[in-house]
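Sample pair:
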Amino acid sequence: MAHVSLVSREVGRTADGMELRLRSPWYRSLPLSSISIEVRVDGAAVASERMRFCVNEHDYRLDELAGLYDEFWFVLDPGRLRVRGVEPGQHEVEVRLCLRIPYLFDEETGEVLTIQSSRRQVVTVPQKAAVE
C-alpha cells in the first residue's frame, strides 16, 4: 500500500485545542468500526478521552467507533479529529491510524490490519477575540 499523508496541512484551532483533517489512506469507504486512532503531540501520547472523530456531520468519542458498523468514512471526505488541551503554537503531531479491512485478511495470520502513520509540524494559533 502506498504511503498517503494522513494529516492535511489545514489545522484548525478550537476553543480548547486543535482540529486536524485526516485523509483515509484506503481506496474504499470503511465503516467506523474498522478504524482506531492514536495521536502524539510533541512526543507525548494523547489520551483517547481528549479526542473526538467527526464524519458525516456526527461527532464521536474514539471509544464509540468500534460499535459503529453502519456509519462510514467515505474515501473522499476528510475526517476531522478534534484534540482538546493543545496550547496555541507550533507542535509536532503524529497520527497513527489503524484500519481493519473487513473484506481482506492474511490467510496465514488471519490479521486484517493495516497501519498508517503520519508525522507533521503544525501551528495552531489562538482564536481571534470576538468583535463587540
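The first strand starts at residue 7 and ends at 14.
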